[in-house]
Design a protein that fits this description.
Layout: H1 9-18, H2 20-28, E1 41-42, E2 50-51, E3 56-57, H3 59-72, E4 76-82, E5 87-92, H4 93-109, E6 117-121, H5 126-138, E7 141-144, H6 151-161, E8 165-169, E9 171-174, E10 177-180, H7 181-191, E11 198-202, E12 216-218, H8 219-228, E13 238-239, E14 243-249, E15 257-262, H9 264-276, E16 285-288, H10 295-307, E17 311-315, H11 327-335, E18 337-342, H12 344-353, E19 370-373, H13 380-390, E20 394-396, E21 398-399, E22 406-409, E23 426-427, E24 433-436, E25 449-454, H14 469-477, E26 483-492, E27 498-503, E28 507-510, E29 513-516, H15 517-525, E30 530-540, E31 544-553, H16 561-575, E32 584-587, H17 601-608, H18 623-633
Parallel strand pairs: 4-17, 6-7, 6-8, 8-11, 11-12, 16-17, 16-18, 18-19, 19-20, 31-32
Antiparallel strand pairs: 1-2, 3-13, 4-5, 9-10, 14-15, 21-22, 22-23, 24-25, 25-26, 26-27, 28-29, 30-31
Helix pairs in contact: 1-2, 3-4, 3-5, 3-10, 4-5, 4-8, 6-7, 9-10, 12-13, 17-18
The structure holds coenzyme A and adenosine monophosphate (AMP).
Residues 123, 147-148, 172, 174, 179, 290-291, 294, 296, 318-320, 343, 345-346, 349, 375, 511-513, 578-579, 581 line the site of coenzyme A.
């Protein structure tokens, strides 16, 4: 623990605890409403209550129009920095508003209105941001799908969200290859039962897409025509409780969960975090190295920096290899970045390639004040290395797609609390965190348990899952009545610091990407040669975890293990996408099970990680564990 600084955290948290409604009413003053909230919270509405139930607003207005009106027209809003294409561009608030209003007019022409869903399947280019904001402007509900997902995953989301329109680009660019998006979209549309009315396709020069004659529309041509005709769409008034977006995240089965974000609570919370948590002022430059397909990208590449009148960097590249491990330092220097937000895996990648941080030499990072990490557990080793080389506070903070912003963090803006490596620090206002045993009783300080949040959830958290209140209740609210179950396990120490150690369900975290092992098992099981299978997340020095599949083949199948592995790896890549990073499928004779037939995944994971394990009392045949150990050893694991 380093020396404590004066922090306003305790008094701010106490203020919230004393009167949550007054706290959020005060925070809501920072938003420009169309009809300001008279009622802050309605405990009777929705599944667990609704925030700002009588207010109306427009998110895009607060992100753009308001700043243009108030003197930020010429200030950069979005800096696009793309080492993979060798392009840089800067959009002022006025430019961004112009682009968004014109695109929104095009969407209107294509029939999109308030409440309609729009799927956005795009790489990290400015048009992805324009698209999100154009939907927000119209009161349409966007659902961004990460580009690393394959056709089937996209199809599942299309069927669940039933979009009127799909927005895409012809390709994304990975350091080693150009990923053509359009064939993936075409594949998804042939798999999906829902058929959107049209697709708006942005042609990129790296790979032009072939267009479906009636369904596909040319993005650039339609926007150019709208601009030439002076067409601009106005902001549409929506209820604070209307959905701004749906973001699908991995559930415990192959069917993803449609996390719903409302307009009002999201506006209030995100705006509050910029100053109080991240310590960023309007006009300063914020750099979130994530992807707009993830919640971190939604909140801190797009919405929060813009709501705050800051400048956001949109980076189309990787932490290493584009071209080297000094890429982030270049961006920070060149754009005068004050805070960087990324996943620990990015720093593990940089450290691996440049352990002495030689690429930092000569870089002017004088504007840079803090590094924020989230998306997976920040291992103390990586954290310490980042502190040593950057010489600024390195702040771990914990959140989930479901919450939209930080649950437990260390508020730089309010004044940093002493950092304990391995802990994201303390609950933010809005969150009362407990650590419970299986019976729902609080465990003593320092004891592992289920980390839960007392209801109601604060503004910006999901009010429900898209058109599925029942699944929302079952997945999050039923295990511990009165609490939201985070499905993270951890402990709270005697100082109230929260430690998040891992998931309690079958979600794994690969390079900061949240993936379902259940979803991967469904894919493996669909292979005709596979009788049964299990996928577990095993430790990986770079990505934190990597999936490892164990398969038992059907009797009579004579495929060699290497052959079946090659087919299964290709199948997961085809069905889920490259983002799954599925590279290991070991053929075994049997899976370890309890006498009641439950597969002992946790024990298999411990064997793979070389950890000690207690022989499960209910195991059917202990010899199977030795067989698993042998299979792993054969691949240099365990
Ligand atoms: N479109 C298409 N494919 C994509 C993609 C996209 N948007 N993003 C990733 N992929 C592909 C990659 O090319 C890779 O394919 P490959 O198996 O052919 O090599 C695969 O998906 C796995 O990607 P990733 O896990 O990102 O691994 P990587 O080796 O490309 O990069 C890191 C490793 C650590 C550099 C990278 O994961 C990273 O920068 N992580 C930052 C973390 C982050 O952004 N987290 C989001 C939440 S904050
Ligand atoms: P996602 O919804 O993709 O943001 O993933 C959320 C999950 O990532 C959480 O439930 C945690 O398991 C993990 N996670 C995110 N941030 C942290 C963190 N700072 N420390 C530990 N785990 C984290």
């Amino acid at each position: 623990m380093n020396a404590p600084h004066a922090s306003r955290y305790q008094e701010t948290y106490a203020l919230w605890q004393r009167d949550p409604a007054a706290f959020w009413a005060e925070a809501a003053q920072a938003i420009e409403w169309i009809r300001p909230p008279q009622q802050i919270f309605d405990g009777q509405a929705g599944v667990y209550g609704r925030w700002f139930p009588d207010a109306t607003c427009n998110t895009c207005f607060n992100a753009l129009d308001r700043h243009v009106r108030d003197g930020r027209a010429a200030q950069p809003a979005l800096i696009y920095d793309s080492p993979v294409t060798g392009t840089k561009a800067s959009y002022s608030y006025a430019d961004l508003l112009g682009e968004v209003a014109a695109l929104a007019a095009v969407l209107q022409d294509l029939g999109v209105g308030k409440g309609d869903r729009v799927i956005i399947y795009m790489p990290m280019i400015p048009e992805a941001v324009f698209a999100m904001l154009a939907c927000a402007r119209l009161g349409a509900v966007h659902s961004v799908v990460f580009g690393g997902f394959a056709a089937k995953e996209l199809a599942t989301r299309i069927d669940d969200a039933a979009p009127k329109l799909v927005l895409t680009a012809s390709c994304g660019i990975e350091p080693t290859r150009v990923v053509e998006y359009k064939p993936l979209l075409d594949g998804a549309l042939s798999l999906a039962s829902h058929k959107p009315e049209a697709c708006l396709v942005l042609q990129r020069p790296q790979a032009e897409a072939s267009m479906h004659v009636t369904r596909d529309r040319n993005w650039r041509a339609l926007v150019a025509a709208a601009k030439a005709n002076g067409r601009k769409a106005d902001c549409v008034e929506v209820a604070a409780t209307d959905p701004l977006y749906i973001l699908y995240t991995s559930g415990t089965t192959g069917r993803p969960k449609g996390v719903v974000r409302d307009n009002g609570g999201h506006l209030v919370t995100l705006k509050w975090t910029m100053e109080n948590l991240y310590g960023v002022k309007p006009g300063e430059v914020f750099f979130t190295a994530s992807d707009v397909g993830w919640v971190v990208g939604h909140s801190y590449i797009v919405y929060a920096p813009l709501l705050h009148g800051a400048t956001s960097v949109l980076y189309e590249g990787k932490p290493v290899g584009t071209p080297d491990p000094g890429a982030f330092w270049r961006v920070i220097e060149e754009h005068k970045v004050v805070a960087l937000f990324t996943a620990p895996t990015a720093f593990r990648a940089i450290r691996k390639e440049d352990p002495q941080a030689k690429h930092l030499a000569g870089r002017d990072l004088s504007h840079f004040r803090a590094l924020f990490l989230a998306g997976e557990r920040a291992d103390p080793d990586t954290l310490k290395w980042a502190e040593e080389v950057l010489k600024v506070p390195v702040i771990d903070h914990w959140w989930q797609t479901e919450t939209g912003s930080c649950i437990v963090g260390n508020p730089l803006g309010l004044g940093l609390l002493p950092i304990k490596h391995g802990s994201p620090t303390v609950p933010m206002p809005g969150y009362e965190i407990s650590c419970l045993d299986e019976a729902g009783k609080p465990v003593p300080a320092g004891t592992m348990g289920a980390i839960v949040i007392r209801l109601p959830l604060p503004p910006a958290c999901l009010p429900t899952l898209w058109q599925d209140d029942q699944r929302f209740r079952e997945a999050y609210l039923s295990a511990f009545p009165g609490y939201y179950t985070t499905s993270d396990a951890g402990y709270i120490d005697e100082d109230g610091y929260v430690f998040i150690m891992g998931r309690t369900d079958d979600i794994i975290n690969v390079a900061g990407h949240r993936l379902s092992t259940g979803g991967m098992e469904e894919v493996l099981a669909s292979h005709p040669a596979v009788a049964e299978c299990a996928v577990v997340g095993i430790r990986d020095a770079l990505k934190g975890e990597q999936p490892c599949g164990f398969v038992v083949l059907k009797a009579g199948v004579s495929l060699a293990p290497a052959e079946i592995e090659r087919e299964l790896v290709a199948l997961v890549r085809d069905k889920i996408g490259p983002v799954a990073a599925f590279k290991l499928a070991l053929t075994v004779n049997r899976l370890p099970k309890t006498r009641s037939g439950k597969i002992l995944r946790a024990t298999m994971r411990k064997i793979a990680d070389g950890e000690d394990y207690a022989m499960p009392a209910t195991i059917d045949d202990p010899a199977v564990l030795d067989e698993i150990g042998v299979a792993l050893k054969g691949r240099g694991l365990g």
